[in-house]
Specification:
Layout lengths: L2 H124 L8
Amino acid sequence: MEKLEVILIVLSIAFLLFAGFSIPFLLQIWRTAKSMDLTLRMFNQNLPGIMKNLEEITTNVNRTTTTVHRQVEELSLTVRKIQGTLSLVVCMEEILRKRIGLPFARTLRISLAVARGVRVFADYLLRVRPEGKM
């Protein structure tokens, strides 16, 4: 046998061993491709339903966002009206305090003290006393 024949025999045996060891890998790749095909078919069948659900969810989120935005605007308007009313009340109170001034407060205090004194005096006069004592 010549060298060339030996080399060809060795290469043939190596190729057969490589082919033999490749068979399990090729079978696994074939099974995986088959499984992926089944998964892809299921996904394609369910995709329209998923897209419809996603569209409904998006519509509901948009509707909710619009409602919340409108309610926040209404609440903001109400708060601004309340702030305006309160500032008007504060301004009116300041104007009234400046116009009435302190003499009115002093006069009111004196009037209340006089009324209290008159009441005490009237209570004392109208009180029932035992006979013989004044």
